[in-house]
Design goal:
The chain is an alpha/beta fold. 33% of the residues lie in helices and 29% in strands. The strands form 4 sheets. It has a 5-stranded parallel β-sheet. A 5-stranded antiparallel β-sheet has the order 10-9-8-12-11. A 3-stranded antiparallel β-sheet has the order 13-14-15, with no helix packed on it. The radius of gyration is 30 Å and the shape is elongated.
Length: 258
């Protein structure tokens, strides 16, 4: 199933490079008639001028004329190893220079450029933009769901159900099959589960399993006493750090300040 055509409000900026002014004018005319969603924001007849425009202004789509495998324009493109723009190549040669196929262009068009071939290249552009947008939105949705999942923790305590804000949990301490949660407000919640069960549920970027019996929220670590391998928490408690976990724990503390 093809993605929908772009709405009229969507616009892509276009930069033209061709030493032939007539070829540039023909492209601009074709764009104005058949591709209202494209807007030509600049043009150049020299490699240096084209590179300067890319560096200073940028674009969404660059339409580039190529002539031979050693065309200087390839050297210019190599200045942009991870370009934020799409490319359509054009050429008057019988065959495209093989070098052109390294750049994953949305189109390779022979001159004089026909409107149908140009439209197909632009459709490929919209397809890529559409897939990129979907990928981005899915990533945002996944992050939002993950954040929501980690925002609260429902625990079955000795008294019933307890709902804790994950960000308010200072530390966890286990004693056999029991685990005690210590919250920022001083409340304690005792549950009949091993601490290992909660290691899987808590966000790994904030909670460190520093000892067989202890998990700490690194946001609440106030000091690390290196000589005795102890973390001093915001509630004044002291948590032992096992030698095996020390390096990972210190790395997490460091990343909190980066």
């Amino acid at each position: 199933m093809n993605p929908p055509s772009p709405p009229s409000a969507v616009s892509q900026s276009v930069l033209l490079f061709d030493s032939d002014v007539n070829a540039r004018n023909a492209l601009k005319k074709m764009i104005s008639i058949y591709q209202p969603n494209l807007q030509v924001v600049g043009e150049s007849e020299t490699e240096d001028g084209f590179r300067i425009r890319l560096e200073n202004d940028g674009c969404d789509l660059a339409i580039i004329d190529v002539r031979s495998p050693d065309d200087p324009i390839f050297e210019t493109l190599n200045h942009f190893p991870d370009p934020g723009f799409h490319i359509i190549f054009t050429t008057a040669n019988k065959d495209f220079p093989p070098e052109a196929f390294r750049y994953k262009a949305v189109g390779y068009l022979f001159k004089p450029v026909e409107s149908k071939a140009f439209a197909q290249a632009v459709e490929t552009l919209w397809n890529r933009e559409y897939r990129s947008m979907v990928t981005y939105m899915m990533a945002l949705l996944e992050k939002e769901q993950k954040d929501q999942q980690h925002s609260k923790l429902v625990l079955s305590s000795m008294e019933g159900l307890a709902v804790l804000e994950v960000r308010s949990i200072v530390r966890l301490e286990s004693d056999g099959c029991y685990t005690t949660f210590y919250a920022e407000n001083g409340e304690r919640t005792l549950v009949t589960k091993n601490i290992k069960e909660f290691e899987k549920l808590l966000p790994a970027e904030k909670f460190a399993r520093v000892h067989t019996s202890h998990i700490v929220n690194v946001d609440f670590v106030k000091k690390f006493l290196r000589e005795i391998n102890v973390a001093v928490m915001s509630d004044g408690s002291q948590v032992p750090i096992s030698r095996r976990k020390k390096s990972e724990f210190l790395k997490m503390l460091w990343l909190q300040n980066v």
